[in-house]
Amino acid sequence: MEVVIASNTDEMAARAAGIVESFLGSAVSPVLGLATGASVQPLYRELVRRHREGSFSFAATRAFLLDEYVGLHPHHPQLYRNVVRAELTGQVDLRPTRLCSPDVHAADLEEECARYDRRVRRARIGLQILGIGRNGHLAFNEPGSAFDSRTRVVRLTATTRADNACFFDSPDEVPRRAVTQGLDTIMETGHLMVIASGAAKAAAVLSALRGPVTETLPASILQMHPRVTLILDRQAAKAVVDSAGPG
Asked: Which of 48, 67, 177, 242 has the least CB density, counted as fewest CB within 10 Å?
């Protein structure tokens, strides 16, 4: 893996935005994977700023959501499709029809998961933006998720729901289920860019980078991918730096 340790949030956003900009400029029809959460918000603000300054365009891009809550109203502000529109795609020149997400309101949710998985695989995502959970999850692949998992409905752990409660008026409002791309689906992406900030992520980052590759820590599968860029702030990187010892 390529590990980038940034001194602050602005530097993290700039480094990550540079990777996205380079990717969009190097492909005729780029396919971008989008995540949500506090870790990627500074990146999206930086991408919007650069786009408005004329740095690059999203017009030729297709974007696919990594995961989505089950059980929220279609217009709920925390439905991830709505979050991504508010933070990124609705502020740039990406046409709404080119933002793809699972239909979590489908009558047959299992069939919808299979359909979305096929669509993602056919699209061949070139760059996937990812965060990493405090418990080592990738997307909503919680500890214990099979490495050969595909897009499916999952039950969220108490840790994940607690971490996401800050986006809702009450912890009880956080959905208990979600649709997520599986680990095997994610591993088919050409380039994985993982963003992690804060001391709470330090242990998970260390385990993902240096620990055994195990389904009990889904992010450890990153060690098996041929191209991963991990962008960290100093707090998230502290355990990795400390484990390296002097020099």
From this structure: 242
